[in-house]
TrEMBL record:
Principal location class: other
Pfam families in alphabetical order: Motile_Sperm
Superkingdom per UniProt: Eukaryota
InterPro entries the UniProt entry points to: Ig-like_fold (IPR013783), MSP_dom (IPR000535), Nematode_MSP (IPR051155), PapD-like_sf (IPR008962)
Name of the featured protein: MSP domain-containing protein
Cited function: Central component in molecular interactions underlying sperm crawling. Forms an extensive filament system that extends from sperm villipoda, along the leading edge of the pseudopod.
Record's subcellular location: Cell projection, Pseudopodium; Cytoplasm, Cytoskeleton
Amino acid sequence: MAQSVPPGDIQTQPNAKIVFNAPYDDKHTYHIKVINSSARRIGYGIKTTNMKRLGVDPPCGVLDPKEAVLLAVSCDAFAFGQERVF
């Protein structure tokens, strides 16, 4: 049986949360740099809670040691308070 190892270190820039502020009548995009600062190859995957509104490109991938990728996180335009919630 394969030995389980903890994941390596992942850094992000910015290293805090991102916030999409009003107005929501235009699409807004922020860029996040994800850096594999470990000595191992890692895989990543980003999920959203609202796929109609939020998107990430690329949503998944593999990073070699010391490699980085720039992710585009987008919030599409919408009418605040006028959407149906299920």
